[in-house]
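Re: weekly structure request thread

Next one in the queue (157 aa):
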Amino acid sequence: MAATLVPVDGGSPIVLEKQIILIGRHQDCDIPLPAHAKVSRRHCCIVQAGERYVVRDLGSMNGLRVNGHRVNESELQPGDELSVADAVFIFRGALQRSGPRPSGEQSGPSDSASGSSSPAPIGVGDDEQSSDRDNRRSTAAAGKSSDSHTGQKFAEV
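Done, posted below.
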């Protein structure tokens, strides 16, 4: 089962079904927050890498906080409080199965050449990488610095 964001204000839980979830005021965002004036048009994104979820600020004006600490990027843990400007959510991780996996089932993509079952770095080789680059360009065009928001740090997760 996918992870969810539960709005603290009592709204319905939001299921994180896509690999990359865009959050912001713009209607084209996966999680649009038009009623929150302090939320940027494209405020942040949540990226799923295997069973991990990483939230990343996209150069917003009012910032991103995890458990009250301002962050540019952070891995989310179940129970974390995520503040997107003035919109606050509780992150609920995906439900984990107990016991061994059935034979032949893997926890994530594997590299058949090396036999590794760890997920590929976030954004590497994906079409989303060009989308992220386009978001940085639009942020820079709006006069905001995006130097601290490069894809390099994302790949280190």
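The two ends are 22 Å apart (CA to CA). The first helix runs from residue 128 to 141.
Next request, please.
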